Amino acid sequence: MDIGIKRLSRDESKAPIDKNSILCKIIVMVNSITDQKMYEISYLITSVIKEEEAFAQNQKIKNLITELGGAVTDEWPPKRKTLAYEIKKQSSAYFVNLQFNLKTSDLRSFEKKIKLEKNILRYLITVIDKTQLKEMNKNREVTREKFKKVLAPKTISEDKAEIEELDKKLEEILKKI
Description:
Largest sheet: 4 strands, antiparallel
Strand content: 25-35%
Mean pLDDT: 79
Number of helices: 6
Structural class: alpha+beta
CATH architecture of one domain: 2-Layer Sandwich
């Protein structure tokens, strides 16, 4: 079985290593050997339960994947969201997103077990192909860097500088009036 491994020439070995592309290639090779595909599930957990219970429900779904021989490769923890429209008479829910590997033969049993979960309002399972995986890994790094900058704590001097700047602008506006 050819799994796409080739020997590098001297010129190729000097090129910078892209960690995301290497990770993508490893996932694709493992999936082709084990007859697994990469999936993504997005689901809504009822907001009637507490946040700790939502995290426990998420862990239950992850355990279900591992019991079926799959592996969770990436996850976004439960986050409470206001829904655009009511689902089962609820206007908010915990949104969760998981990426995982699973054999195609086990997907039906996984879906049946998801349907039996009473706290899950709605779910969607999609297949992730190779090109999507590469794009997602590129975009994920950019997004994480942006969030780090936005969520980084500001120092007191930066806050004072912003307040002083706002005070000057407010005085200029008031002088014009």
